[in-house]
Structures are given as structure tokens and as C-alpha cells.
Amino acid sequence: MIAINSFDPLTLVLIAALNPATIVVAFLMGRRADQWQKLPVVAFAASIVGFILYWLSGQVGLVKVHALGGEAALFTLQFAFGLVWALVGYVLRPR
């Protein structure tokens, strides 16, 4: 029988907030954006890169991925944090 474990919301928030790939990609792409309307696209790209890093770390064995349903929440949270980091990069961009 397959054991289904519930996910911990605090862990998902911490993984999404502290994912270095999401932070770096969102900030650097936000700095390069010339219009604020491009920031959601930047956040989407950053959340994809962040999720790929999370998946690769799970495949290699750095983190234990055992919860069911946390992946969609993680992607959504990374999008939200990516939007914040993209906004920071957009505000701090050289003019």
C-alpha cells in the first residue's frame, strides 16, 4: 500500500522563500525588465527555474521529497516570492 503524507506549509514557505535559483533569476531578470508589465513573466520564469532546482535536489538526494500535493503550492509560492524579488530588481535597476 502507498503511504500518503501530508505536507507541511511552513516548510513549503521556507523552501520557496529561500530558493537561491528563484531569488537570483527573478532579481537579475527584474533588473533587465524595461516595463513593469514584464514582472509576472519574470516571476513565472524564476519559479520554473526554482522548481527545477528543487526537483534536481530531490533526484540527487539532497532533500527528501515525500509529500503529495506540495509541488503545486511550492510553484505558486515561488511565483509570489519571485514577483517580489523581480520588483526589487526592477526598482534597483540602473537607469
Q: Can you describe this structure?
A:
Helix 1 (about 10-15) packs parallel to helix 4 and helix 3 packs across helix 4 (about 70-90). The chain has one domain (about 20-90). The protein is elongated and about 45 Å long. The chain has helices at about 10-15, 20-30, 40-60, 70-90. It has four helices and no strands. It has about 100 residues and is mainly alpha-helical. Keywords: Membrane, Transmembrane, Transmembrane helix.
Descriptive tags:
95 residues, 4 helices, 0% strand, single chain, 69% helix, mainly alpha
What would a concise description of this structure say?
The chain crosses the membrane at residues 12-29, 41-60, 72-92. This protein is an all-alpha fold and 95 residues long.
